[in-house]
Each structure stands twice: as C-alpha cells, then as structure tokens.
Design brief:
By secondary structure, this protein is an alpha/beta fold. It is built from 11 helices and 14 strands.
C-alpha cells in the first residue's frame, strides 16, 4: 500500500508529539505536514529534543498547509479552537480523514456542548457527522467515517470498564462513583502554576470536582448503553507522574456477583487486541501499560454487600489520545487495526 500522507495540527503539544512518535515508525504513514503557530519555523527536534533522529517537516502555521495533498490529519489543538479549523480543512479537501483528539466533536447534543464548554458549537453540520471514536464500541462507524472524535482519556478508561456492564444490566447505572487519577501531561504543555514541579510533585490534588467536562462524555455513552439518562459521580485528580491514568469505579450490583462482572468483561473483550481483563486477584497498574496502547481492567469484590470495584488503567497519551486516534486511522484506511501500535509497555 502507498503510504498515507499525514498532517498533525498542534504538533507542539503532548498529544501531537505522541502522534509524531508513533506515526514516525508506522509502516503505512508518512508525516508530511506539522503545524504549531507559536513555534512556526522551528524543527520538531528544537521543540522536542527526543526527536533528534527523525527527518520531519518544519512546523508551520496551519493556514500555510496545502490540505489537498494530505490523506489524513490528526488534530491536537485545544477545544474551542478546533471546530472552525477542521471545517476549513474539510472545505479545502472533502476527502481527507480527520482524527480529532480535542473535545470539540465528542458530544452529540449541541445544547450539552454549549453547557459544558461555554459557547455555541461553531460547526454544527460537522458535529452531526462526527463519529465517537471509542474504537472497541464503534468500530463499524469509525471504519466508514470521515470525521472521528477521539474520546478523552478519562472516558476511554471508564467506558471500556463500565459500558459492557451497563449494557448487560449487571450494574445500577444510577449509582456509579468514579475516582480518577491522571499524570500531569493530561493538563497539556502550557505553563500552569498547578503543574509546576514544586506545586504538583510529592502530592495529590483533586480538580474540577463535580464539574469536569469529561463527565458529559461518560454520561452520554453509559446512558446510550443503558438506554436511559445517567448522572455519574466523577472526581479527577492530578498525580505527580508524566503519563498514565487510573480509574477506580465503585458500582452497585443488579443481582450479579463480581465474578459475573469479570466474566462479562472477558466476553466483551475476548477478541480485542488492546483490552485485557486481569484474572481474579490480579490488579491493574499504570506501569503495566505505560507508553503502550493497551488497557487493563480488573474487578474486585467490595466488602460492602452488593457492591463491586472496577479498576481500569491506560496511558493517557496513547490509548487515551494519540494511540487510539491511530487505531481509528488504521480502520478508516482498511489497515490492520494494530498497525504501528503493538509496542510493549515501558517497564520499569
């Protein structure tokens, strides 16, 4: 197969950089355009020193890219800035494939988007077209899509753990508590006081309590699986490590046992290349998936009667972002889904 020509919007951010890292060794991809307005004119190795060995195009403003020459574009821009740029890219090249790693097309309901993100959606015609890109749940839709809205890192970990259980009616979807923790790369590369080493190191801090925007994605997809509106209790925390994510979900059982939950997850993911359900008594750990596209899920019986604890972990920059986007790109181009993504976790 001829290599697909790939562009990356926002290549100077962490998600854009991890897309570069993975695509640089993808056998069917050629990175031909990289954008970053603040760093325009620089090489990627000037912005990220670990790319010293790669021959990559220079960073340019997005307006200077000839989008008609590209087959696909990965978007690593912040939410709110993505909608109009993607609309312009698709106008220039209607056949291009879009892998959006921002939040701008994840919510199906336009009123919900305005509520959570503080402004009206600026590309409603594309919002209706976008496919929610949680690969394991929407594989067929992703395969046929032109615009894929890749999920957030927290929703990916939570939804892979809970959607099969909600769909099988094994848990009470009106009683879900999610305790989530993410490495500081989840906050982006911009300078922020709370992510300075002396502020984030040697400590653990909650943020956006009761109001984190990923709650909307989680509720949208669990609600779709359950067939009813859902509200979850979701609290994220910043943990002092660069990458990684761990979600602990506390659930009430609907006449099921923790072993039933594990069996259902094993059934749901029996043929999935990147989702692994741990054996009874084996607990997921962030270090088991660091740098990889893999997800680990475990189930433990709560000592409180009729409750269970579902554990899930992933790398927030890979399966939680760039890796999942590449997994979707592979589907959109008819490639084996695992192409370029079979790296084993970096341990220790």
């Amino acid at each position: 197969m001829t290599k697909k020509k790939i562009g990356i919007l926002g290549a100077s951010g962490y998600t854009g950089a991890d897309a570069v890292r993975l695509l640089a060794r993808h056998p069917n991809a050629e990175i031909t355009a990289l954008t970053a307005n603040t760093h325009a004119g620089k090489t990627m190795s000037e912005v990220f020193l670990h790319f010293f060995m790669l021959d990559l195009p220079k960073l340019v403003e997005w307006e200077k890219v000839d989008w008609t020459r590209l087959d696909a574009v990965f978007c690593g821009l912040p939410h709110g800035t993505t909608q109009e740029i993607i609309a312009a890219v698709l106008k220039a090249n209607p056949r291009i494939k879009i892998l959006d790693m921002s939040a701008d097309f994840r919510l199906r309901n336009k009123d919900s988007y305005a509520q959570w993100y503080g402004h009206e959606h600026r590309a409603l015609e594309l919002q209706d077209e976008a496919v929610y890109g949680l690969t394991e749940l929407y594989r067929e839709e992703v395969t046929a899509a032109r615009l894929v809205a890749c999920p957030g890192c927290y929703p990916t970990a939570v939804l892979l753990a809970l959607v099969p259980l909600a769909k099988a009616k094994l848990i009470d979807v009106d009683d879900i508590i999610i305790d989530a923790k993410s490495g500081v790369t989840g906050a982006g590369r911009g300078l922020k006081q709370n992510t300075l080493f002396s502020e984030a190191g040697e400590g653990l801090s909650p943020y956006s309590i009761g109001s984190h925007r990923h709650s909307a994605e989680i509720e949208q997809e669990i609600g779709a699986a359950a067939g009813s509106a859902v509200t979850v209790n979701f609290t994220p925390h910043l943990i002092p490590m660069a990458r990684g994510e761990f979600c602990t979900s506390y659930v009430k059982l609907n006449g099921a046992t923790p072993d039933d939950l594990r069996a259902e997850l094993e059934r749901a993911y029996a043929n999935e290349p990147f989702v692994y359900v741990t054996k009874k008594g084996v607990l997921p750990q962030t270090q088991n998936v660091r740098g990889s596209n893999y997800v680990q899920i475990g189930v433990v019986a709560d000592r409180i009667k009729n409750r269970a604890i579902v554990l899930s972990t992933l790398d927030n920059l890979v399966k939680g972002s760039a890796g999942q986007a590449i997994q979707n790109m592979n589907l959109m181009f008819g490639l084996p889904e695992t192409t370029g993504l079979e790296q084993i976790a970096l341990f220790p």
